[in-house]
Amino acid sequence: MGKSEAQLAPALYVFGDSTVDAGNNNAINTYAKSNYAPYGVDFPGGVTGRPTNGRNAADFIALSLGLKAPPAFRLVNTSTLSDRCEGFNYASSSAGILPESGFKGTLSLGEQVDLFRKTVEEYLPLYFKSKDDLSMHVSKSIFLLVVGVNDYALNFLKKKNSGQPFDDEAAAELLREKFQNHLTELYNLGARKFVVFDIEAIGCLPIYVNQQKPPTSKCVDDLNSMVLKFNEKLPLKLQDLAVTLSGSAFIVGKNYEHILNLVENPNNYGFKDASNPCCALTPYGTCDGKRPPCEDRNSRVFFDAFHPTEAAYKIIAQNCFSGSGVCVPMNVLELARLS
């Protein structure tokens, strides 16, 4: 499990939803799958289950840390664990912070944390000489979390649209409370260095823009206002956690601003099209496997109706890793260098 001189952290552990899923849903009985072409058209080796044309943000952050992209976690396949010394990806497409938010069969954030618990308690000890060595490995590793949009898209929006009494602020506070609990669980398992992305600007996703066609905006503003209720207080909540959980450090990744900026000012980032998905769509907003994707993938912000292209992921990952303003109060490089 020794790390090479080029590695800036022992490992990267990834938790979240489809924006960082590396193929965990492939073997699950669920609709939320991307294990078919044209997904993966630009990924080395082809289709993996990532719902984009190539790498996602977690992949780019891993590469910047000098690590291999963390593989999808397989409970049934532990024989190759010794080849996976640089972390795991537990993310599951459609997953939410709340267990009721995702599609049936997918792994909620709580279930992903339970898989990490199993990793720490049953698998990783086989590869370390002592508990202290294992503890050092976990404490120096980076924990990346990208989750929350499905709690709105697949849960809160349905409740609100059904006419049920719904309080945006109460819903956001419930999410933050549950999220803090899961972060504390990871801390209790040894995690110390956290990169937490806020919820993306859901109202800028093509699936909602094309449905509602806002007349005076490039995004559906009321949908964005909903997730802002969660995002606005997230940094303060993480600051409180950093004080409570001794030795912990938290970064907030501004995923909301990233998507909003790409959609409102695509030319500033080298994109020509921030409205039309690159692949031909099914009625559900996913890629139609029978039709080829666009050829100008590097000029598109979105690959399907929900997910950015590799080019869009690369921008936020690189800025978060070594830039300023996208990830605060420090970037991932500075976090990795913390003693």
Low-confidence stretches: 1-5
Q: What spatial order of strands do you see in the largest sheet?
A: 1-2-3-4-5
Largest sheet: 5 strands, mixed
Q: Supply the helix-strand structural class.
A: alpha/beta
Relative helix content: 25-40%
Q: What is the count of helical runs?
A: 11
Q: First CA to last CA: what distance? A: 19 Å
The chain-level mean pLDDT equals 94
Helix and strand layout, with pairings?
Layout: E1 12-16, H1 57-64, H2 109-123, H3 131-140, E2 142-146, H4 149-161, H5 168-188, E3 193-197, H6 206-212, H7 221-231, H8 234-244, E4 249-253, H9 255-264, H10 310-322, E5 327-328, H11 332-337
Give your account of this protein's structure:
This protein has helices at 57-64, 109-123, 131-140, 149-161, 168-188, 206-212, 221-231, 234-244, 255-264, 310-322, 332-337, and strands at residues 12-16, 142-146, 193-197, 249-253, 327-328. It has 339 residues and is α/β, with parallel strands linked by helices. A 5-stranded mixed sheet has the order 1-2-3-4-5. The longest helix is centred in the middle third of the chain and has 21 residues, at 168-188. The chain is globular.
Note the main attributes of this structure.
6% strand; 339 residues; disordered N terminus; alpha/beta
Short description:
This protein is α/β, with parallel strands linked by helices and 339 residues long. The chain is built from 11 helices and 5 strands, in the order βαααβααβαααβααβα.
